[in-house]
Amino acid sequence: MANIVIDNIKKSFGAFQALKGVSLTINDGEFVSLLGPSGCGKTTLLRIIAGLETATSGDIRIGERSVIGLPPKDRGLAMVFQNYAVFPHMTVFENVAFGLRMQKADEARVKKQVEKAAGLLHIEPYLDRYPNKLSGGQRQRVAVARALAVEPGVLLMDEPLSNLDALLRLEMRTELKTVLQEAGTTTIYVTHDQTEAMGLSDRIAVVHDGRIEQVGTPVEVYNHPATRFVGSFIGNPPMNFITMPVNNGQVAVGAQTFAVPAKGSEIVLGLRGETVERTSTGQGLDIQVRVAEPMGPHLLLTGSILGQPARVILPATEAVKNGEIVGLKLDASRLTWLSPESGVSYPVAA
Ligand SMILES: Nc1ncnc2c1ncn2[C@@H]1O[C@H](COP(=O)(O)OP(=O)(O)OP(=O)(O)O)[C@@H](O)[C@H]1O
After folding, report:
1. Residue with CA nearest ligand 1 atom 2
2. Is the dihedral of CA 64, 70, 71, 74 positive or negative?
3. Cβ < 6 Å from ligand 1: which residues?
4. From the alpha carbon of 207, which atom of ligand 1 is closest?
5. Whose CA is nearest to atom 20 of ligand 1?
6. Which of 219, 78, 221 is nearest to 143 (CA)?
7. Is residue 187 within a helix (H) or strand (E), and if so which, with residue range?
8. Structural domains of the chain, with CATH
9. What pLDDT score does 350 carry?
10. Cα separation of 148 and 145, whole Å?
11. Ligand 1 center–CA 191 separation, angstroms
12. Start and end of every ABC transporter domain (predicted)?
């Protein structure tokens, strides 16, 4: 069991700064995702924690002990990386048993742990096979099972589900969460998939351009994004950003008025598409609908609000035609207000 402290980690590759001072504490038994677009520095950070890459400056502490300078094997962690390395000359059983053999576990424990991990990842039927007789997805599950079999205090995972088909991904996501919670494993999980991060994580660290832009529970980062980047990266459809005029500290839309913290004459409204309610036009914000798409569980409207691109979601039972203007009532408690200059959101009123 261990907590992890990432303390002002910087990493440069030549003149390029991949990590620009990252700090984050992961509590004992917590599941934290590093979520961000390709190239933002997630994998580099994970490799530095693992000891596969050296930081330019900063400290990593696992269970209070600085691990900077320690080789990966002495850091008390297990890893599952995207390019899941399974040993081709070993059966699936021996692959999963690998870490336990290294620990010189007795045969009874090896068998018990391998069976437990194999059951979890649905690879029991393949235990006697060699990896070249498995699909990519099956091999990936072997790699995850191998990491879990040793019941590590800290588990680092880099897009471990990326080679699985959508249904298996969903199933594994649920199972991973359960097993890691039960084992009390401290987990850092790298992904660019916001759905995966939302579903799995106790907290999400949103990484952007070598920095952590926000750390919070999935609900916090979704409902109260700290920046425009976070609001647009998390959520499908992404948050809408609509620049609006401010008069005497108030924004008026139809019959609705909102007190806002803006200093200047404009503010950006961050609007989650599903927080609106249909009303008559002119009562709230009106959307000029370009396309209305029935999505099954809901109706997606794409168009413009105050001449700015917008997407909102209405219940599937609503009927809207392409080209129609639809009135939307806003829920004051679900709105985010952001500075037009910095893209940073104003704190939520207590
Ligand atoms: N060994 C290296 N030499 C030079 N540049 C590197 C090296 N490793 C990574 N980078 C650069 O550092 C940046 C961060 O890379 P990193 O792999 O951490 O991103 P990522 O967020 O994990 O992206 P992805 O999801 O695509 O893996 C990228 O711009 C990448 O090109």
Report:
1. 13
2. negative
3. 13, 16, 18, 36, 38-44, 192
4. 21
5. 39
6. 78
7. strand 186-191
8. 4-228 (3.40.50.300), 237-338 (2.40.50.140)
9. 52
10. 5
11. 13
12. 4-234
